[in-house]
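Section handout 9: paired folding examples.
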Amino acid sequence: MHMRAPLELGGSDLALAEQMSVIARLAEFDSASAWCTMVANNGIGAISEYLDDEGIAEVYAAQPKPIGAAVAAVGGPATPVAGGYKVSGLWRFCSNVHGADWVRCTALVEGDPGHPVMIVVPHEDLQIKPTWRVTGLRGTGSADFILEDTFVPARRTADMRARTQLRGDRDYTRDVGGALAVYEHAAFAIGLARRARTALAESLRNSPDRAQREVVKDEFARVCLEMDAAELLAFSAFGAVDDPEATWSSDPLQGLPAVATYVTELSQRCIALAGRRAGSRALFVPNEFDRLSRDITAALAHALVNDANYARFGEHLIAFGAAPQLASA
């Protein structure tokens, strides 16, 4: 949960591709564990990078590795007061909120709607609502929470219009609009697809008659090849962001959200095929295919992996040419 956090604060400061490998591997075994690790990693990572020394001292005071959580969307206004802000609002879908020591979220400065500010609040300041009654990713506890006239001292805030990163070797200031944060979503989807492939292969080995059907072998081979190619695409695209020797034909971040969306959609197709070809095993509950189907559907509902990513990338390709985004180093 501290892969992104800077070395100087006890984190690992791993490259994006290394973080992806960990999240994908976790997702091969348990969806909620992987998702909560993803959110905690992102939450404490940004807190550690953007808060000033006084704020960091407070966050890290109780334990050397505090657990974080984060909400991407804006939930309410931040009213400037002496020494900080008064904040009120509703923030939705905060995964890992029940286990977090600190939560990072975004508010807009009152009177200046174009001025986002990152606010960091302790768990005890949250009014957590029992809203997470869902079909997929049930174990993530992604509940809503309310802040009601909560004072947030300036030391626990960061001006996200300025986006001044104070720690860490990797430049996360480029992550405007979630362009960079989607690497974790791609990794999560990859792990779920691996799990579906493993489960289907096991099911077919236990059902020789079904395994010998030409259409089953054909479909399984095709979806495995597609997922292998998608993994290579995702790991190379996000890995190249950290490669100082890589040269790009245009802004490297433009295509990353589309890559994450594509990988997540393809994972859903892989999981659907696994459930369809698993035979009667997929009828009885509980079963892995049903769980995977619900979890990947929930993952696709996230705002960072939506269809608009394709449209934005298409607009970029039209403007700058449809050549491969990563040129040879």
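Moving on to protein 2 of 2.
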Amino acid sequence: MTSSAIGAGAGPNAAAPARSTVAGGKVAVAAAVLALLLAAMDATVMGTVLPSVLSDVGGGSGGGYAWLVSGFMLAQVAGTPLAGWVADRLDDRILAVGSTLVFLGASVLAGVAGSFGVLVAARVLHGLAAGAIVVSSYVIVGRVFGPERRAKAQSMLSMVWGVAAVLGPVVGAAVTEAWGWRWVFFLNVPLCAFVVLAIVLALPKREAASGQQQRSGFPAGEYLLVTGGSALVLVGLQGGELGIGTIGGVLAAVAGLVALALVRRFGGGLVPRQILARTPSAGAALATVGACVVMYATVTVLPVRLAASGTSTTQIAVVVGLAALGWVAGSAVTGALVAKHGYRPSMLAGALALLISATLSATGELPWLAGMTAGIGTGAVTATTLALIQDQSPPEQLGVATSAATMLRNLGSAAGVNGIAALTAALATTSHQGQQNRAFWVLAAVVVVAVLAPAVVAPRRRTTTG
């Protein structure tokens, strides 16, 4: 590793500096967790405040409101690999502070936005900053704790996503009801200021990157392939909402997949080569996408189907809430499992939980259990795969490895939300309500191919490269 785990000492005379480093590291990690929570909640809060936003600044006609969500997601895709590249070359504080300040500025801009266009611009800035914050938070925790305790620490960060899924809509609704939707963004300002101050004062300085690494130029061609391909896939999956139609969406998605396939030949600077080859990291990457497809399909498409069958709003909220809490529980348990038993047991357990969820959703039985097992499985799989991808990457590529895992999670979530929704609509008929369940049988097949198969061949023992 380029820097040792917190708590390393060199004898009695080093005791005081070591204690100071430990305390500073803990404060910095707390700030990183808070920053990640803000970024994760910002991705979930828009659905709650959207009606109030549209009635205030307009943008509801012609489906333009979709850009408030899509603009955030596309910008996050663009910011994530860039942040990973920067994280491997500069002091961790530069990326963390810079991305948090951009997030703060975007929050102010969103809060004072007087038109729909300005608000979309603010959401794009939010997405860029959020992508960088996610990468910097995981990198800070990974470097501060070192490879020995990284798995347990990263599972704590994975829990944040489940917490954000619960808190985001609830806090958004409460703040909007009390003070108006603009304060949802204004409240980010003091919290971001605290994060910046804590990072500047508490995060230990990292050793500079090697001269060869610093001199290496930015891989612009690979960046265009990664971001352009990912963006085209996302646009294709949201073709209907963005007004390009089904054919346009299919063409965009195919073009995006072709661009991403080319990364295997020309990549290495932004996406570690081991993710693109026949390695355990490649299996972990596939499992990350598959798990997120199931999770986000379950918490978006399943509630719509339940509502159509007459299920109450309260019961639907229970399903979504159990999914989020399941994610927290799955992530919390996984860190200790990986550290003690390696990658395979937790990946297998997560894959089986996801298979149970998809099967229950397909049969229409026990929707609350379908939600809970989707969350548990996703938490277990994504926490394990992140640990595997980071462990198998050289220390000097920790940033790009983390950004690659984050980007895969974004692609999986988009595919789960939009792809399964489109498949459900295509399979639905007015004469046979059960036809809608076929989309979730497809999800079950996705689990077997994309999650269970990589889990079966995952390494038994945990190994690290640094």
